[in-house]
Amino acid sequence: MSDTTISSAAFADTKPHYELLDGLRGVAALLVVFYHIFEGLSFAAGGTPITTINHGYLAVDFFFILSGFVIGYAYDDRLGKTMTTSNFFKRRLIRLHPMIIMGVILGAIAFFIQGSVQWDGKHVAISAVMLSTLCAMFFIPALPGARYEVRGNGEMFPLNGPSWSLFFEYIGNILYAVFIHSLSTKALTVLVVLLGTGLAGFTLFDVSGYDMIGVGWTLDGVNFLGGSLRMLFPFSLGMLLSRNFKPFQMKGAFWICSIVLLILFCVPYIKADTAPISLNGLFEAACIILIFPVLVWLGASGKTTDKRSTQICKFLGDISYPLFGYFLLPPLPRPLPDHVPILCLANRQRTLYLRRNLAYGNSGLRRQYRLGLPLPETLRRTGKKVVRQKVLEKKINSLRVSNIGILRHPRPVMSI
Q1: Distance from the CA of 240 to the CA of which of 51, 121, 133, 303 falls in 20 to 30 A?
Q2: Is residue 213 over pLDDT 80?
Q3: Which phi and psi (to 5°) does residue 406 adopt?
Q4: Contacts for 194-198 with beta carbons within 8 Å, 24 or more apart?
């Protein structure tokens, strides 16, 4: 058999599926979809706080742990032995990339239906949309402010925002095939500890300035670092769990894990300006480093006990990836609200950030506070134009940011 041919055995499911993990992936997918629906509604309503599923963005970190566990379970004892690296890549491409291409096509259609305009109402040329479509199909991320970054809010893949996490998933798969799978369990443990330390430091000390871990969706230094940590730690941790996994009897594991996920995602945003560390980051780190691995272990230990529960888990697993690949927020009303949201930064950082970046729709605007003060037209964003320094300083000196509520700049749901 030639190297360019994949045998049918390479695609055969030689190991049984973890049905409960499929179901949990679907539950997390539905929760993150609802989270982004609430996000879109809060923006469309003029900046009201996001309610109910406050920490739904943590689903992407849960997905990465699941992915690492399943890939380690499926390929650790085959890659480099009965399966070549090229066959592994072909298998993963066939699994992931058709959905990516379909998502880009649907995203382009939706963009045309919405009038081919950016968030600020600026019309985008058809040639730029076509270039963006072509780049996204080949998984070439857009640089913030580039001509083919057509939505104007700095996303890697503006026509299908969910693709940003799949971009990191691809990186994880490449690193796994190149060297991670060949690491001993001891070496993998060391890698996980180092990555976990980095992720904890990133969240606890609010390196991004967002006071939350919603990073990775755009190509700036902090987002790429944060997105890499978000993928590498849980992905590697999932592989380590698969190597050391020993199931135990657990009744009702699917329902228990689903309820725990729902509770975690509904925990209110945690804010304390006087704390030496980010309390919201502490909660996020606890979820990713401690709670999510336990949920994966419990889900892998449990089994469906009847035909109905098996059907439910299968259905949820089947819809999870299409949800990630295709879900887009509905068109939002224009004109945009007349207030300017700003990042929820620590006191020592807020003024500096405002002076540099206070422009509506700036790609750095993520976890935000609402300013209850309409600002003049000079503060509106026009392309990459930065608003006048003197106007900003005058406004900054007169404003006090109160804890009115949390909102986020609109974008499509993340995916895995």
Answers
A1: 303
A2: yes
A3: -105, 135
A4: 195/229, 195/232, 195/233, 195/236, 195/237, 196/233, 196/237, 196/289, 198/229, 198/233
